[in-house]
Known about the structure:
The complex is a heterotrimer. Helix content of chain A is 42%, strand content 17%. By secondary structure, chain A is an alpha/beta fold. In chain A, strands 1, 2, 3, 4, 5, 6, 7, 8, 9, 10 and 11 form an eleven-stranded mixed sheet that branches. In chain A, helix 6 (166-179) crosses helix 12 (323-333). The N and C termini of chain A lie far apart (47 Å). In chain A, 58% of the residues are buried. Helices cover 22% and strands 36% of the residues of chain B. In chain B, the strands form four sheets. Chain B has a six-stranded mixed sheet, with helices on both faces. A five-stranded antiparallel sheet of chain B has the order 13-12-11-14-20. In chain B, helix 4 (137-149) packs parallel to helix 5 (167-184). The model of chain B has no long low-confidence stretch (mean pLDDT 87). In chain C, helix 13 (268-296) packs antiparallel against helix 23 (480-504). The radius of gyration of chain C is 23 Å and the shape is globular. Chain C is an all-alpha fold. Chain C is built from 23 helices and no strands. Chain C has two domains: 7-25 and 300-478, MetI-like (MetI-like fold, Orthogonal Bundle); 49-246 and 267-298, MetI-like fold (Orthogonal Bundle), CATH 1.10.3720. Chain B binds chain C through residues 11, 13, 18, 43-44, 47, 50-54, 73, 75-83, 85-94, 102-103, 132-133, 140, 147-148, 150-151, 157, 164, and chain C through 2-8, 251-254, 408, 410-411, 413-422, 425, 428-429, 432-433, 435.
Amino acid sequence: MHALRWLMLTATLAAFSMLGACSGDDGPKVVVYNAQHEELISVVAEAFTEETGIKVELRNGSDLELANQIVTEGDASPADVFLTENSPAMAFVGSRDLLAPLGATTLENIPARFRAADDHWTGFAARSTVLAYNTDQVSTEELPDSLMELAEPQWRDRISFSPTGADFQAIVAAVLDLEGEEATREWLEGIKANGTVYDGNNVVLESVNSGQSDAGVIYHYYWYRDQEESGVNSDNTALHYFEAGDPGAFLSLSGAALLANGDNPEQAQEFLDYLTGTEGQQVIADSYALEFPLNPAVQLDRAGVPALSELSPPEVDSADLDSETVIRLMTDVGFL
Amino acid sequence: MSDVRIEGLTKSYGAAPVLQGLDLHVAAGSITSVLGPSGCGKSTLLRIVAGFVRPDAGCVRVGDRVVDDASTHVPAQRRGVGYVPQEGALFPHLTVGQNILFGLPRLCRTATRLDEMLELAELPQDLARRYPHELSGGQQQRVALARALAPRPVVVLLDEPFSSLDTTLRVSAGRSVARVLRHAGATAILVTHDQGEALSLSDEVAVMRAGRFVQVAAPGTLYNRPADPAIALSVGGGTLLPGTVTGHRVRTELGELSTSQVSGDGEALVLVRPEQLDLGSSPFHAISARVRDVDYHGAQIVVVLALPSGHTVTARGPATAPPAIGDEVGIRVLGEVRTYPAAEVS
Amino acid sequence: MNPRGRTALSPLPLVIGAAVAALTLIPFGYVLVATVDMGLTQLLELLLRPRVGELLSNTVLLLLGTVALSLVLGVGGALAVVRTDVPFPLVWHALLSAPLAIPAFVNSYGWVSLTHAVQSYPGAVLVVSLSYYPLVYLPVVASLSVLDAASEEVAWSLGRSRVRTVATVVLPRIAPAVLGGALLVALHVLAEFGALQLLAFQTFTTAIYGQYRSAFASEGGTVLAGVLVTACVLLLTLELLARGRRRWARVGSGTGRPAEPVRLGRARLPVVLVLVGVVALTLGVPLYALGRWLVLGSSTEFVTSELASAFGSTLGLAAGGALLTTLLALAPAWLAVRRRGMLAVLLERATYTANALPGIVVALALVWVTIRVVPSIYQTLPVLLAAYAILFLPRAVVSVRSSLEHAPVVLEEISHSLGQSSWNTFRRVTVPLVAPGLGAGAALTFLAISTELTATLILAPTGTSTLATEFWSDSSAVRYGAAAPYALLLILVSLPATWLLARQAQPRESS
């Protein structure tokens, strides 16, 4: 009985303290569903509030939770702005007609190739696909020019990747766009036969570093971040960028959009203007995130990281990827 | 205190009948024992009166209130019927004091009331703060009784209250419980399979067999005038011998005996209680028998004797001059005997 | 035994039980509606493919492996602590209970950063069992401690060896505890996501998350969830059959006399070494890994205000959720034990189905319902607490039910005969009698909620951060150093609940 009383007391105290924390004032605000890394966006949001006086209510999660949540909420969603880590989540929400067209300032801030064709969402940061390889187990001559080579027999039992993430889905979509359905299916079957499946880019990197696998497909920033963190999971590895125009050189976009039924459309638009404007993009460039800002006026200026302009991604409209076919192919092959 | 009246009580579990039309009246302030072997339905009867089980048919009345009939069922908590189960079943999470005061309204749970109840139950005051597992079996039983009596119930039910106590404790615990009940002036129904308990503690004994009452009577009547041979054997014991009745005389192997019963002449079974058989060697001890077995029960002995016909009879008497096994002894029958028409026992 | 009939069946418990069952069936209904919407052809297409078979065999194998290993560790540990003269039994008891305080994903995280060998079937079985065996160990210790020695002594006197006595007399009598523990382990493993993700071992639950992550509100995910529910129902039916129609209530006479401890003699050192080994694996590895990250990680920082806020909200949510869940568990558990009818059993079992559904499905179902029916409470505390209750009710029901089974009915009857109403009887007799079960249920739920991630992210009031959300956010962003303090705090916040569970099962001090 003592335990129960104690529990009741704790619960009551905590409930009061949480109620206190939640009861906000009625000033201007914007509700942001943020699936990008929380540490990054909270810095941008703080800077935005300081500049405009608009309070940002940040709801954090991943693409998994928030995209499904917004779609389940439908028209009743409390969200004004949706930020994703990768484009498929945004495309999914967009396919349900829940997004509003973007304002002119935002459209001007970001080059058209990083935006959706219908102007319903825009990229605000990008990441490049790379191959992390174990420097003891892979010689530089062996490194593939193309992502497609990883499906070939010389890589049998040597590679690893994380196919259940939306990130990988974007890569497959790029392959599909460039190589066609049959080639994509064969490639998927090939890498399934060749590789080990892990859950998460960081786990892939760790497996390459420890020599479990020789090479793994990840996004560039996982490697750079680990180097800045401690190097414990990446000191035995190096990064290899695929050749210009290859599906493996694909840039994935973190997307930003306005919800059609948001309660605070003006503040939401203001937030996106800030996020894509020079100030917001500079915050991203200076952060730990190591992702590429997309406003041409701002550069990621970090030691060892190539500039966005040095990369030559393939000509793929990342805003218009065929995720339905991708899911079907990945399901057929047995990744999902 | 109120009386309890039970009429035509019937209860079955599935196809198995448990109670088959019981009638019973327990006078206000009296103690009635329900005596019977295990499985005869006596606990079910008690649970119906308590309100835990609903009868299939029949009527239960407490005082002038109907608590059970075809259209009424008063739940246990509104009957004012106290219940003392086997082993006491004290609440293990409460102290003795909290157990006793459990059934009282909050304002009535006073130290004075507790002291009254402890005194009534002949329990020392310092027991109040102890927990049930720190008590002896007899003490637990009396706390359970005090708990049942504290809210001043109209009736108290006791379900085999002494069965978990050892034999010596049983007698004293039984006496003390009966004393407490009488002191409280409670109407009580006591269920037991122990005839000694039933006879010594109660004003009336209801003998139950297979869901029916076969005799309801005061202890003395039950002992002296058992309604049938089976009751006779289970209450008090004894020997049944064949005999021939002529008026108030019965001819048996033990000689011609007298009976005050008015019954038809002819073949009969004759009940001879062990204490009616007197051993000796005087001329009055005309029948001779051989000693089969001798059993010591403290100051008394029980002797099993074989008659010339092969029938055995049991005698009980003082252990002052015990015979030896194999001895030839003379016997005679003291007092009157009971007879039962031979047809009654198949 | 007397035949027992019941009278005046109050409809209230049934109504409350039905309400609780209805709450827990919301996600099930959501899955059902989605599956029916899909149509048979597509359903079969999604169901009858090699991937489902692969996941099924993975899940079943993991279930069998972890339950078996947990039984070995749990029963073995309990016998060593309670029934032998191993030195310092109370210290070993504390150490063997302690893994409950280390969340399974923190444990996996520790193991994976030490060796990748655990990213395999045997590795997954080992690591998950090391996290969950206390769920077997604790009830078995409790049950062994109150076991009367008399029947064991009879068995020896009849010429049985001590080992055979344990096998033939002791084990059957602790079977209910073993079975209950095994069910808890199985339920935990079915729902486990974080640890298995780190261990790179795919089960239905991780695959459902994969589906929702790649294909979003996909039919595939829903179908897999349906299979999972079926598996769970099967498991529950098996357990129901195994427990049979026994009753364990015991009145008066207190507890039995404990048996003389077995003298280990020359086996003493090996037994102690095995115990040291188990403790090193369960506690040493994760604590070492966390310490290493704290020292190595450049992102390691102790921002007191953030840590304190996450700690506070975790504590509050877990305490509130545990309280609500335990209270809700009372009705179905009471019905199952005291009424025992077909309906009562169905209601009780209904509360288990949601346990098989991953947090994402339960959370989305609640989003769907609240935003359409009661939008005003959307993203408020009550909905989140309801989600916790739905997810973790079985853990509370199992504990409350077993303590109810040991509480004699006659005590409730006595209370009625003393003029107490059903409610008063419940409050003054039933609840105090099942208090240990309530405490254990609340503690298990507390532990589960403090590590819950998905439902918290989706349903918590905006701006809520818990230790679990912060840990995942940091570790998935490769900020291991920043994640480590949250993991440490998670262990800290779990300690009181673990202590409570360990103390309840505490073996009596033997001379």
